[in-house]
Design a protein that fits this description.
201 residues, alpha+beta, Multidrug-efflux Transporter 1 Regulator Bmrr, Chain A, 4-stranded antiparallel β-sheet, 4 helices, 25% helix
Length: 201
């Protein structure tokens, strides 16, 4: 895809994202294996490939910038890679954009499209950016809509923790946030989730 068309498609997807339309984004594959109280889903995710960098805390747009530069050509082949969803953040809380994962310790992560992973993703050229393989895993997730405030996220994490405790499930890592829409999406149309990776019994 040439550069102009790539940016045109990315802009079009972003505009649709304002209205909660996310059908064009490649998303990690999973199966819902169990439904718990209050809408909590237990999901089995397939292995996936991501590109990640370390964030520096709340509002770290530079971490997002490093990853965005990777998918727009800062890689060994100069490839432009389609955006995906969801954004996943955990540990330190940082600004949300699509598609990112931030794990414990402030790591921000973009999942790569399946076709890119299968063909062999190009290595990053920017320092501090790396490819990582995420193994198959079980995740418990609670979906909600609205603005992403620290208070909203804390309350949803509390609900998720309470439901898992009652169900006798144990997390293997701190809770993360997964956002499926750009930060400027209409709040009540947003798909937000809090989630935890589950310990294998």
């Amino acid at each position: 895809m040439d550069k102009f068309l790539y940016y045109l498609v990315t802009l079009f997807e972003s505009v649709l994202g304002v209205f909660g339309v996310r059908t064009f984004y490649d998303q990690p594959r999973y199966a819902v294996v169990e439904r718990l109280d209050r809408g909590v889903e237990v999901r089995a995710y397939e292995p996936r490939l991501a590109v990640e960098t370390d964030g520096r805390g709340q509002g770290d747009g530079e971490a997002f910038g490093r990853l965005f530069r990777y998918i727009t050509g800062a890689n060994q082949r100069g490839d432009r890679i389609a955006m995906t969803a969801p954004v996943e953040t955990g540990g330190q809380r940082i600004a949300m954009t699509v598609p990112v994962e931030q794990g414990s310790g402030g790591t921000m992560r973009f999942f790569l499209p399946r076709d890119v992973a299968e063909a062999g993703a190009p290595q990053p050229t920017e320092p501090g950016v790396r490819l990582v393989r995420v193994p198959a895993e079980k995740i418990a997730a609670l979906r909600f809509s609205g603005s992403i405030t620290p208070e909203a996220r804390t309350e949803q994490e509390r609900i998720l923790t309470e439901v898992l405790s009652i169900a006798g499930r144990k997390a293997s890592a701190p809770a993360v946030f997964m956002g499926y829409d750009p930060p400027f999406a209409i709040p009540f149309l947003r798909r937000n989730e809090v989630a935890v990776r589950l310990a294998i019994p």
